[in-house]
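Hi P.,

Sorry for the delay on this. The queue was packed all week, but I finally got your sequence through. Input first:
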Amino acid sequence: MVYIAAALMIGLGALGTGIGFAILGGKLLESTARQPELASTLQTKTFLMAGLLDAVPMIGVGIAMYLIFVVGPAGV
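Then the structure:
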């Protein structure tokens, strides 16, 4: 069960990040089309948000590795 939980954490984290990046990119294109003079500012803020968005699955991978290598062998 620990391995299934770890796989779900990694898989759902990746799925959520993919959806988040799609929404973020779409909103960047939409707002740049509305106000082209703010493109550099919007791009900077988008890259900042992309970095924060990318941290979520990395934390999930860390917790999943903890489950696999520390909790998993104790349960076997």
